[in-house]
Structure formats: C-alpha cells, structure tokens
Design a protein that fits this description.
Blueprint lengths: L3 E2 L13 H24 L1 H8 L3 H25 L5 H21 L3 H29 L5 H30 L2 H21 L5 E2 L4 H8 L2 H21 L2 H9 L3 H29 L1 H15 L10 H15 L2 H12 L4 H30 L4 H28 L1
Antiparallel strand pairs: 1-2
Length: 402
C-alpha cells in the first residue's frame, strides 16, 4: 500500500484516524464529475434539435470527452505526483467548473468540443487521485469497500445526474444542465480546500513510473479489460434514448424514468461489487459479472417489452454492470501497490476509453445495421471482455511466479 502522510502542524487531523469522512467528500466530488461527464447521454435529442446537429454529432461530445480524459489523466497525475493532494484536487475541480460554465454559455457545438476537452482534463485530476487516496488510507481487508465508496459518487451520478439532466434538457434546454453542474462544483471546491488535509501526499510517482507501467504488458492487458467491458455496456447505453423512443414510443418522461432506473442500479451495483471483491476475490467476481452481461445484452433485441418488465430488466442490467469497478480496481492495485496513483489514473482513463469505444462502435452498428442489433453486438463485445479477463489473470499469475 502506498504511504500517505500529512504535513506536521496542519490544522486538519490525520486522515488515517477517520478516513471515511474524507472518502465521503471525495465521493460527492465524483458525483459532480460524473454528472458533467455523462450528461450528454440523456440530452442527445434535445441538444441535437436545439443545435441543428445530428444525434451522432452530439454523441461525439461524449467521445471527445472520453478521449481527452484518457490522453490527459495519466500524464497530469504523473506530472503532479510531488504536489499535495489537496492542491491537485482543487486545481482539477477549478478547471472542470470553468469548463462547465463555458459549456453552458457556448453559442454552438463548435465551442462545446474544446470545452469538453478542458472538462476532461480537470476531471482526470480528480477521480484517479481520490481513488488513490482511498487505496492508500483504507485497511487492506476493507480496501474494496473504500474504493467502492469513493467511486459511489460517480455511479450515483447515473441515478440523479443523467435522468435529472435529461428532464432539465427537455424542459428548460440543455444549457441549464451544464450551468447546474458548474454551480454544484463550487461547494465541492470549498469542501476539498477546507477538509482535505494540507500536504497529504503519497510516495511520489513520475512520468518515468507512468512509462514503466505502459511498458508492462501485464498491466496494459489488465487495464484493457476495463476498456472492452465498458465498451459493451456503452454500445447500448449511449443510444438508449433513441432506442426507447423508436421501440417503446417514449418521450421526455419515459426516457428520464428509464435512465433513472438504470441509475438506481449503479450505486447498488458498486456497493455489491465491493463486497463481492472482498469476499469472492476480484477474479471470480468479474467472471460472474461478465457472464451475466453476455446473457443480458441480447435481450435488447426483443424490444418493445411491457413497461414494468423493461424497467426491471434495465435495473438488473445496470446492477450487474456496475459491480465490476471495485474488483477491477483491486486487481490493478495488487499489481504494484507503490504505483497505485498511476494505475488508478490509467483505470479512470480506461473507463472513458471504453465509453468512447462503445459509443463509436454503437454508432457504426446503428448506421450499418440499425438500433435493434445494438444488444446482440454488445454481447459479442462482452464475450471478448471475458476473454481479456481470463488472459490477463493468467498473465498476472505468471508475472507473480516469475
């Protein structure tokens, strides 16, 4: 486990004496980050209509954010490795807040793209650092639950952020959503600056450490599981609003309700995933999760379904899918505990690579074969994720033995 320390003389207590309160603050920050990151999913149709752009162009905002996050986060985490965690978190939140304000004021889609790049850079300094704090300060036997608590904010954004953003966009316009996220980020800035201990640091990581991890094939293939697994989920989730609109006849309220149900499964799945990781082990947990996804995704080809059955199915699909993160985080931390900040930044980056890959693959499937083929195609990607999981676990065992 990475060492953590706070500067002597700080007015803040040692976070190791009561890390849970600090984890809750970081979870709230990740909720706001998640709402800003995923908001375009629920706003595809109203944004496309207001901007006079095709749905795929608006979905590109999610793709650009994901690519920018993946490209910038590991580098920024490495460059700031010797700086106190409070300053890094505050800087990241400040950049993210400014980018959300610029998004709300953007006159058209052309300015939204660079604003999303800046938002991703800010977010890429917040989520991995907060996960690294959880990995460092939690007792070893509760590390999975600590990681799930901090990551809970990101999954809770699926509960409230995406469906509420969808409802607001349909009702008051898409600008109101980005403006709300900017306002919500302001108290997060205050909480981080006043409650995160000054001088909290870990064993410093550098660009050389990042390069070493990137040259490690076992680490890369382990991180690659995140990419492939989430690509399968987001092939469907990104285009869930138009899928529901065309097959179920849903408008604002139906789409928002379904996104809310999906969101409810996210935090519960995250909590369940943390317990599974601690009790069953990360490898066994992820195998079960992959199998469940492979069985769930083809069922989207059966739409339309009775409304109650659809909501129950969407909830279960979300619950299973979001179980993956604590186990995956534990797998990465166990590879090289001193490099946990770098590995967590790569994990967070790989989440957005998976989102970008999923939305991109979904667009290709949608344009070539139609909405009804999204589920079966995504199931094929989930099957590939299971293969990557098995391959990476075998590689990690060989590396440990050698």
């Amino acid at each position: 486990m990475t060492g953590a320390r706070a500067e002597s003389g700080s007015e803040h207590p040692d976070p190791r004496s009561d890390p849970r309160s600090l984890f809750l603050i970081l979870s709230v920050c990740n909720f706001v980050i998640g709402m800003g990151a995923f908001a375009p999913i629920g706003m595809l149709e109203p944004m496309a209509g207001a901007l006079g752009s095709p749905v795929t162009a608006v979905a590109g905002l999610l793709t650009v954010y994901s690519i920018a996050y993946a490209a910038s986060s590991p580098i920024l985490v490495a460059l700031t490795g010797r700086i106190g965690r409070r300053r890094v978190l505050t800087a990241g939140l400040a950049i993210f807040t400014l980018a959300m304000a610029l998004s709300a004021l953007a006159p058209g889609i052309a300015l939204l793209y660079p604003a999303r790049v800046f938002a991703a850079a800010g977010a890429g300094m917040v989520t991995p650092v907060s996960l690294a704090i959880a990995a460092a300060l939690a007792p070893p036997d509760r590390r999975g639950q600590a990681l799930s608590l901090v990551f809970l904010g990101l999954t809770l954004s699926q509960v409230a952020g995406v469906p509420v953003g969808s409802w607001l966009a349909y009702t008051y316009g898409w600008r109101s959503v980005f403006g709300l996220v900017a306002l919500m980020a302001l108290p997060c800035l205050w909480m981080v600056w006043t409650r995160v201990p000054a001088g909290l640091r870990f064993s410093p990581v550098t660009l050389g450490d990042l390069g070493g991890v990137l040259r490690n094939p076992v680490a890369l293939i382990t991180v690659g599981f995140t990419v492939v697994f989430l690509a399968g989920i987001f092939m469907v989730y990104t285009y869930l609003p138009p899928l529901l609109s065309q097959t179920m006849g849903y408008g604002r309220d139906g789409v928002s309700l379904t996104l809310l149900i999906f969101g409810l499964g996210a935090p519960l799945g995250n909590i369940l995933g943390g317990r599974m990781a601690d009790r069953l082990g990360p490898g066994r947990s992820l195998i079960l999760i992959c199998i469940a996804e492979i069985l769930c995704l083809p069922l989207f080809a059966l739409l339309p379904l009775p409304g109650t059955l659809l909501l129950g199915f969407v909830f279960f699909w979300s619950l299973v899918g979001w179980c993956f993160s604590p186990s995956q985080q534990l797998r990465l931390v166990s590879l090289a505990p001193p490099l946990a900040p770098v590995l967590m930044s790569l994990h967070a980056a790989s989440i957005y690579v998976g989102i970008a890959a999923g939305s991109g693959l979904g667009a290709m499937v949608l344009e070539s074969a139609g909405l009804m083929t999204l589920g079966p195609a995504a199931a094929g990607v989930a099957l590939a994720a299971l293969g990557v999981l098995i391959l990476s676990d075998r590689a990690a065992r060989r590396q440990a033995q050698g």
